[in-house]
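In full, the data.
>
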Amino acid sequence: MAKAKPHIIFAYGTLKRGFPNHGLMEDLKAKDDAVFMDTSHTEDPHPLVVGPHGIPYLLNLPGSGHRVNGEVYAVSDDAVVRLDEFEGLKDGYYERIPVVVVRDGGEKVKAEGYFGHRSFGEILWKSKGEVGLIEYGENEAKEYVRKEDRPGRKNSILDILIS
């Protein structure tokens, strides 16, 4: 019996196919906790920037930036728990926020995306000269440092941005 997948998640960075953390999505798919739906883009512009350690952040500053390209997945409740943990929600790295995306066929879908936490989003946007990306791509992924390989892992992103 197939597991219910009541959540639609918009992936725009390292969880996308071909990127460093897509293995998590593959694991969720193997456990029948996720299904790839389509490629898509945000209906409204949002800033997408690369922060410290090459980490991509979609920022909840609607109207700034671009319509951001990504992928949509239908996921189970169990998958959301794992994704929330991976994205560091309880540690204040990301927030899971509703976002409308447009599938490649033109259908608008209510999804949720992992946005950089509000505590640093505007600071990060300003530190990037208010210039964002349309898509997190191969060039940006070359700069990505896996969690276990990051120096000073106890520092928050705010500590890194302000120092």
